[in-house]
Write a structure and sequence with these properties.
46% of the residues lie in helices and 14% in strands. The protein is α/β, with parallel strands linked by helices. The protein has 3 domains: 97 residues, Glucose Oxidase, domain 1 (3-Layer(bba) Sandwich); 117 residues, PtsI, HPr-binding domain (Enzyme I, Chain A, domain 2), CATH 1.10.274.10; 223 residues, TIM Barrel (Alpha-Beta Barrel). It is an enzyme of class 2 (transferase).
Length: 554
């Protein structure tokens, strides 16, 4: 049997299925006479749940790092959330048993989150469910599932891998994850990539299709799950694993080789990261710096924005870990497909064309300035570069610089030190920015081209829409001309241009970017050595001629 799902973590896993089935609960509504005692029972379960979660958080922090442990802060916030607690309390005071009151209240908040368009926020409904299930199990005297002692070569089959389950997993014994729920931003996907374990998610009814002990092949590249495959297919995939390991070993030989083409064109290779824990992978793969640190994940999974001190500690840690290598930190980029509840962003007809990224930051000056102050304070601990997303006009750059200056003046008055040599960068993500890149280059120290959005906006194509995604073409002459224009305008002013979109790691497009004159590529840490190998095999002059043909230029 072959099952298709969504591949979210690359690799191939062979092993035996371990099917995790949650207890089926039929939570009955019971009339309670002594509501005071039932309320105490509920409040006691909250305290026990907090104790469990704190222990799980500590274990997660030790094995996965602070950032991945922060998700349990969200669980603790749910247990302290007055809206959730008071809704349950109100139902109990009406004479309803605690289990039913918790389940009904949790479903209300789950449905509210699931109704949102933002995939990331929909995934957070699982946190509510996880917390509610924990409370109900405590009330029923049932122990949590223990995943610490899994057999070797296990492939976990679950409805959805919860954060609390993940914290208990012995990753040495797990060869793959397969879940019924989830997407590319789900907790399972994030953890699988962090662990470097193959994962396929979104496989309908997988728990009932697979039995404990079934032999499985999990293809994290293509999204296939093979159940009790023929011996020939097993041998084929065993060969692929050998080849995969051989490729990884071969790539290690490029680790200390300078990244330049055969005819001497130097291309810097940086890493895209979103979490502190990814820095080790970036350095292990030879990243020359961080080309994109996505700060929006600091603002998610919480009921209020991170404080200046909290942000400062994160930025400081990144800079210290990179030991003087350049670190480009992008300011808050939310809106569009990334919404945050406490910012109260109105629902928009076209969110990608609306109140997002730098527009949102300029409209929330104090939120923006808090981030800028944290960045400035951290700047003395390394080579910080600030980058601003979704710039479309020069006035936005002037406003950004004015607020930076205000933040600097405040810090001076408070005798708080900061670096005087922070480079300011602009993301080129819209046709407008590319067309006026000659003007923007006068006010920037570097450009970074966000090709994901640039292609989408240039071609008027939503690549997540199956009906038009076939038109999403990174080699479209219009896209290439905008990139070429940006590079030429930047080089005239003596500033460098990087690419931090997905095409920076695509073997097909890397030579084209080299031919267009790009100075730097920033990509997923695991892709750096693959791309370096491609660069070493490429000749700049040949690709430059090829680009002229693609552009239809003479």
């Amino acid at each position: 049997m072959v099952i298709k799902g969504i591949p979210v973590s690359e690799g191939i896993g062979l092993g035996r299925a371990v099917v995790i089935k949650e207890s089926e609960y039929t939570i009955k509504k019971t009339k309670i006479e002594n509501t005071g005692a039932e309320l105490r029972r509920f409040l006691d379960s909250i305290e026990k749940a907090k104790e469990q979660i704190r222990k799980i958080k500590a274990a997660t922090q030790e094995s996965l790092g602070e950032k991945n442990a922060m998700i349990f802060d969200a669980h603790l916030l749910i247990l302290d959330d007055p809206e959730f607690v008071n809704m349950v309390r109100g139902k109990i005071e009406e004479g309803i048993n605690a289990e039913f009151a918790i389940d009904e209240s949790a479903r209300f908040f789950e449905n509210m989150l699931l109704s949102l368009e933002d995939e990331y926020m929909r995934e957070r409904a699982n946190d509510i469910k996880d917390v509610a299930l924990r409370l109900i199990k405590i009330l029923n005297g049932e122990k949590q599932i223990d995943l610490k002692n899994l057999p070797e070569d296990s492939i976990l089959i679950v409805h959805d891998l919860t954060p609390s389950q993940t914290a208990q997993i012995n990753k040495q014994n797990v060869r793959g994850f397969v879940t019924e729920k989830g997407g590319k931003t789900s907790h399972t996907a994030i953890i699988a990539r962090t662990y470097e374990i193959p994962a396929v998610v979104g496989v309908e009814d997988i728990i009932n299709k697979i039995k404990d002990g079934d032999f499985l092949i999990v293809d994290g590249y293509e999204g296939f799950v093979y159940v009790n495959p023929e011996e020939d297919l097993i041998k084929e995939y065993e060969k692929k694993i050998v080849e995969e390991n051989k490729r990884k070993e071969e790539l290690k030989s490029f680790l200390y080789v300078e990244s330049k083409t055969q005819d001497g064109k130097r291309i810097k290779l940086f890493a895209n990261i979103a979490h502190i824990e990814e820095i080790d992978a970036a350095l292990k793969n030879g990243a020359e710096g961080i080309g994109l640190f996505r700060t929006e994940f600091l603002f998610m999974d919480r009921s209020q924005p991170p404080s200046e001190d909290e942000q400062f500690e994160v930025y400081k840690t990144v800079l210290e870990k990179m030991e003087g290598k350049p670190v480009i930190i992008r300011t808050l980029d939310v809106g569009g497909d990334k919404n945050i509840s406490y910012l109260n962003i109105d629902k928009e007809e076209n969110p990608f064309l609306g109140y997002r990224a730098i527009r949102l930051c300029l409209g929330n000056k104090e939120l923006f300035k808090t981030q800028l102050r944290a960045l400035l304070r951290a700047s003395i601990y390394g080579k910080l570069k600030m980058m601003f997303p979704m710039i479309t006009c020069i006035d936005e750059v002037y406003q950004v610089k004015w607020i930076i200056q205000e933040a600097k003046e405040e810090l001076k008055k408070e005798n708080i030190p900061f670096s005087q040599n922070i480079e300011i960068g602009i993301m080129i993500e819209t046709p407008a920015a590319a067309v006026i890149s000659d003007i923007l280059a006068k006010e920037a120290d570097f450009f970074s081209i966000g090709t994901n959005d640039l292609i989408q906006y240039t071609l008027a194509i939503d690549r997540t829409n199956d009906k038009v995604s076939y038109l999403y073409n990174p080699l479209h002459p219009a896209v290439l001309r905008l990139i070429k224009m940006t590079v030429e305008n930047a080089h005239k002013r003596g500033i460098e241009v990087g690419v931090c979109g997905e095409i920076a790691s695509n073997q097909e497009f890397v030579p084209v970017l080299i031919g267009l004159g790009i100075d730097e590529l920033s990509l997923n840490p695991s892709k750096i050595l693959n791309v370096k190998k491609k660069i070493l095999q490429t000749r700049f002059e040949e690709e430059n001629l090829r680009v002229k043909e693609l552009l239809n230029w003479q």
